[in-house]
Design brief:
Elements (H helix, E strand, L loop, with lengths): L7 H52 L6 H14 L3 H12 L10 H16 L6 H13 L4 H17 L8 H14 L5 H11 L9 H10 L6 H10 L4 H9 L6 H14 L7 H12 L4 H20 L3 H6 L7 H13 L15 E7 L5 E7 L4 H27 L2 H21 L4 H13 L5 H10 L8 H16 L4 E3 L5 E3 L10 H14 L5 H18 L5 H17 L13 H13 L4 H17 L5 H13 L2 H18 L1 H6 L3 H5 L24 H8 L17 H14 L12 H12 L8 H17 L1 H18 L11 H22 L10 E2 L5 E2 L16 H13 L7 H14 L9 H17 L4 H17 L9 H10 L27 H15 L18 H13 L4 H27 L1
Antiparallel strand pairs: 1-2, 3-4, 5-6
């Protein structure tokens, strides 16, 4: 059949059918081709993942395989059909790594390998950027392990990237933004790696927000590793130098060590101020950790000494301003000498600063005139420390040689001899040369005062056994003692003393150097006192004749103070140029009444030193000190206070009072139970009271607004607080101070310790922190005094109680917080264990034995243990009426919170029974506090378990005996029950419970619930039952199988609520 002869419609249909059929076949063929390609791609990706996994598995074994595996992985990436396919396989293979939380070595090797591979791919293709974006997604995940691994790899990649790596700025911005968020993550290891990742960007000025964030989080960061990472990441700048130096006092050794490492690597010596340099060395060389001090020594040696100072110690000292920071200079030289870093070159010695020129006169006589080259301050300190080190080494080696035998002794002796020979070569050849050297520096003026003092200290290493040498040196001593104090004239023409106005030369260190040389030259018994008293007698003549100006008075007292401080005995002062009595009457007492303030101050100081030398303090001396303390200006009162407290500690308070007359001292002593009130504003009352009463009243003396002392850290309160703390600590040495006075002193110290009104008591608070750490553990009696002082301290600190003033709500809140802190602090002291010496006793035969120990603790008396404190608190709480003010209520609650923390020993059965009965009264005072009542219930159960004889009642006489031992007056009803009273809950403001009970009864009737039983409420269960009833009713509808059990329990609870509601109603009616 011919196709052309067919009808037209048939032809068109055939053409359309053929076209459709052919197109469909081609599409299906194409789809089958795409499926084959996708299958091949999946197979290829599967094989690629297997190969990548194999490579990663092999890298877990050792770092040695990493280089070879990097090449294999790079080749595998290059052979892959597309970078996208490789990245997909790589990321999927790496996903399980983000679930491994433990930092085991094998996992860390894989992380390092992946980071190295990614950083090495920076210039090849887009793999690095895609991988970083993949890690950023993980860094923002909710899973902390995923965030940790992501931050870890990001930080490793960033730290390993070369500087010329081509990464888009947009990607870096995303990385920085993500890491800034991770720096505040709650997981410390994530914060660590986030900081490490940002450290490379912190140097960039465009990213100042990174540095600002580091400086913000460093002071508040709790984790030491994070702090260490931040310190290592800080760039060198003026803003970061002080922050890094502050980290040298961090509590963590690793952080301190990191700080010194950063200072060594990033901060040259010249970039730091003198203050910062000395601070770094002072802290580092004295650090308690050997590793930290070693790091500081490495900084000083490698970076500062060798690189900046050409290994010259004197040059290093010039960078430290040794005239201002002498102790730092001594520490630096000591560290360098100990480490063997000071090498003395040939010809170097002090003798090179002394040269003699020969002058020929008529005849054959020859006169040698010494030519002195003046030393700089650093050079003088250098030689003084070197000579001191050689002398100490020679003495140590000599002692070792004497303590050993044979060859070892010979070696030590040879080393000692070498040190002595070297010392002899360094020091001036003769004493005359030494004297000429010192005089030259003194005559050079105040600019060489520091060098002069260093040379004076060298005198202790010279030999003055020869009479000629002593005569020459004595001339220098006389000149030093006669040298008047330096002064200047102000704009009004008045003379102003330069220095502290107390010590010879106006400086404590200068006075010590002069006295040290004087005692070395005049070493015979009484010779030093004889020479100095001769100078005092000469200087005191115009003072005794009343022709001296205040400068002459101060000079006389400066030399007198030097004598009194260094005199060995009072008897060496007798029979000299001026007798002690004459010295007191004609110089010291008139000086204390001088019109000039500085003269009064130094005279009162000398009076105190004179009283310490006396066998018994004289009446005139004690009277004058008391008058100066009460009536003198603040600066004089501070010095008089020091003198009085020293006299009390040295002679005892009874001996000081006896100096005022037998009639006065007889009023005192054994029966004294409290301090007598003293009105210091009454200028005449200071002489009519005992010394301890006077000093005790001085603690409350208000010096604000009239505060002027020789030392800005000194005040009457600080001096008295430190003195009374020493008296309490050494109470066994002061039997004349009645034990009943100790709690009063202790209360004053605790009030001072927790006071924030005075900012000048910081030094005292540091001292008291050490005192309180040791005081309760030294003696059981100390705990007795602490227990007795507890209630008075709380009364004195709590606002609105015992007549204490209140104030604004903020002020009252702060006062209550301080009182609570004080109460917990005293509780810790009461619970501190006693030191071992308290555990040792001796029997009649002198054998040492330990006292009875129960549960690993000592057995002190009732008054010294926690039982006594618990009874005192319970009686205090019970003494308050049922209706209390808001201040009294808060005070009682604070006491009860301490009460429940105290423990009773099994051996104190009487105290246990008494406390069980007192708990009833305590519970009545705090009925409205649910949580506290629960804690009291627990305490009652604990006491009940400790009571060996539950049925036996506590006799009234035994209860009175216990209360009497604690000096408590309380009427206890011993006939009542020892069980704690039922504690009705306060009336609720919610709708009446009857409605809820009706609903419950309807439900119960539907479910045929069994009858309810009435159970009594307990003190710990005072909450409302309505919520529990509603929940139970709902559960009974939902769970039919448990309805009987649930409804029965609910009925019991509801009946208890019914009883409580009735009690609430009765109470409200009343």
């Amino acid at each position: 059949m011919c196709f052309s002869k067919l009808p037209l419609e048939f032809k068109t249909h055939q053409i359309q059918f053929f076209h459709t059929h052919c197109v469909s076949e081609s599409e299906r063929e194409s789809e089958r081709g795409r499926e084959r390609e996708m299958a091949e791609e999946r197979e290829e990706e599967k094989q690629l993942k297997q190969k990548i996994a194999k490579i990663l598995e092999e890298t877990r074994a050792s770092y040695a395989t990493h280089n070879r595996k990097l090449k294999e992985l790079s080749a595998l990436r290059s052979r892959s059909s597309s970078p996208l396919q490789f990245f997909s396989a790589f990321s999927k293979t790496l996903t399980p790594l983000f679930t491994l939380q433990r930092r085991v070595a094998s996992t860390e090797r894989v992380v390092r390998f992946v980071s190295i591979f990614a950083s090495a791919s920076a210039d090849s293709d887009a793999f690095l950027e895609e991988f970083l974006r993949f890690l950023l997604v993980a860094a923002a995940a909710a899973n902390k392990t995923a965030r940790f691994r992501a931050c870890q790899m990001v930080s490793e990649i960033i730290m390993r990237l070369p500087d010329d790596a081509e990464v888009s700025s947009e990607l870096w911005d995303e990385v920085i933004e993500c890491m800034l968020v991770c720096v505040r993550d709650k997981v410390s290891i994530i914060r660590t790696f986030a900081v490490r990742a940002l450290s490379r960007f912190a140097n960039d000025g465009e990213n100042s927000d990174i540095l600002d964030l580091f400086l913000e989080v460093l002071p508040i960061e709790q984790n030491a590793d994070v702090r260490k990472t931040i310190v290592l990441s800080l760039p060198p700048s003026n803003a970061t130098s002080q922050v890094i130096i502050d980290c040298t006092t961090d509590v963590s050794e690793s952080v301190r060590k990191a700080a010194y490492c950063v200072l060594a690597n990033k901060f040259p010596l010249q970039s730091l101020s003198i203050k910062l340099r000395t601070t770094i060395l002072q802290r580092g060389l004295a650090d308690r950790s050997p590793a930290v001090s070693k790091e500081c020594l490495k900084l000083m040696k490698d970076e500062w000494l060798i690189k900046c100072c050409n290994a010259d110690p004197v040059e290093l000292l010039k960078y430290l301003d040794v005239e201002t920071y002498e102790l730092v200079g001594e520490s630096v030289m000591g560290a360098l000498l100990t480490a063997g870093l000071v090498n003395l070159r040939d010809g170097e010695s002090i003798q090179q600063y002394i040269s003699s020129t020969v002058d020929r006169t008529e005849g054959d006589s020859v006169h040698c005139t010494p030519s002195i080259q003046l030393m700089e301050a650093e050079v003088a300190l250098y030689w003084r420390t070197v000579c001191r080190h050689l002398q100490d080494e020679a003495q140590a080696k000599g002692s070792d040689a004497a303590a050993t035998m044979g060859t070892e002794a010979a070696v030590y002796a040879a080393e000692a001899s070498d040190n002595n020979d070297l010392l002899e070569r360094i020091l001036p050849a003769t004493v005359s040369d030494y004297i000429d050297l010192v005089k030259a520096h003194i005559d050079a003026g105040p600019n060489y005062c520091f060098a002069s003092r260093q040379l004076l200290l060298l005198g202790a290493m010279l030999d003055f056994s020869d009479a000629t040498n002593r005569k020459v040196a004595s001339t220098l001593v006389q000149e030093l003692l006669h040298k008047p104090p330096e002064h200047e004239v102000d704009d009004d023409g008045n003379m102003v003393v330069i220095g502290d106005g107390i010590n010879l030369g106006g400086d404590r260190e200068w006075a010590d150097a002069v006295s040290g040389l004087a005692k070395k030259v005049h070493a015979a018994n009484g010779e030093f006192e004889q020479i100095v008293l001769g100078v005092v007698e000469e200087l005191a003549r115009p003072c005794r004749e009343r022709t001296a100006d205040f400068m002459q008075w101060m000079h006389s007292f400066a030399v007198t103070g030097l004598l009194l401080e260094n005199a060995k005995s009072f008897r060496w002062l007798q029979g000299q140029a001026i007798e002690p009595f004459e010295l007191l009457q004609s110089l010291l007492l008139p000086g204390a009444k001088h019109v000039h303030l500085d003269v009064q101050r130094i005279a009162v100081r000398c009076l105190g030193l004179f009283g310490l030398l006396e066998k018994k303090p004289s009446e005139e001396l004690v009277k004058q000190l008391r008058l100066s303390f009460v009536n003198g200006p603040s600066a004089v009162s501070v010095v008089a206070c020091k003198a009085l407290i020293d006299l009390v500690m040295w002679h005892g308070p009874q001996e000081v009072d006896r100096a005022l007359g037998e009639n006065f001292s007889s009023k005192v002593q054994d029966d004294k139970k409290a301090f007598s009130p003293v009105n210091l504003s009454d200028t005449g009352e200071g002489l009519d009271v005992q010394t301890l009463d006077l000093l005790y009243a001085g603690i409350d003396r208000d010096e604000r607004g009239n505060y002027l002392a020789s030392d800005e850290n000194e005040s009457v309160q600080a001096i008295l607080g430190e003195g009374f703390a020493k008296i309490l600590l050494l109470s066994e040495n002061y039997p004349s101070i009645h034990s009943s006075l100790h709690p009063f002193l202790l209360a004053k110290l605790i009030n001072l310790y927790f006071s924030n009104e005075r900012k000048d008591l910081q030094r005292l608070k540091q001292y008291l922190s050490v005192f309180f750490e040791h005081y309760p553990s030294l003696s059981a009696n100390h705990k007795k005094y602490l227990s007795k002082a507890f209630i008075p301290i709380m009364r004195s600190m709590w606002p609105g109680v015992n007549g204490n003033a209140g104030g604004s709500p903020v002020l009252v809140s702060d006062m209550r917080k301080r009182a609570v802190q004080a109460s917990r602090f005293m509780l810790q002291m009461m619970q501190a264990p006693l030191y071992e010496k308290e555990t040792v006793k001796e029997d009649e035969n002198g054998n040492r034995e330990l006292p009875e120990v129960i549960d690993g603790s000592l057995e002190p008396l009732l008054e010294c243990g926690e039982e006594g404190l618990a009874i005192r608190i319970a009686v205090e709480v019970a003494s308050f009426h049922m209706k209390k003010t808001a201040a009294e209520r808060s005070y009682v609650l604070a006491l009860c919170r301490i009460l429940v923390l105290l423990h009773f020993r099994l051996s104190e059965q009487g105290s246990i029974k008494l406390m069980r009965r007192l708990l009833n009264h305590v519970a009545e005072s705090v009925l409205a506090e649910k949580d506290l009542v629960k804690e009291l219930k627990v305490m009652a159960e604990r006491l009940k378990a400790l009571d060996r004889e539950l049925e036996q009642e506590l006799p009234q006489d035994q209860a009175n005996l216990i209360l009497g031992r604690l000096e408590l007056d309380f009427n206890l009803d011993t006939n009542g029950s020892v069980e704690m009273l039922q504690t009705p809950a306060p009336r609720s403001s919610r709708p009446p419970r009857s409605r809820r009970r009706v609903r419950l009864e309807e439900v119960s009737s539907d479910e045929e619930v069994s009858p309810t039983s009435v159970v009594p409420t307990v003190p710990g269960t005072i909450s409302m039952r309505s919520q529990r009833a509603s929940k139970t009713a709902a559960l009974t509808k939902m769970t039919a199988t448990r309805s009987m059990r649930i409804d029965s329990y609910d009925d019991e609870e509801e009946e208890g609520s019914e009883v409580t509601s009735e009690e609430d109603s009765d109470e409200s009616d009343e």
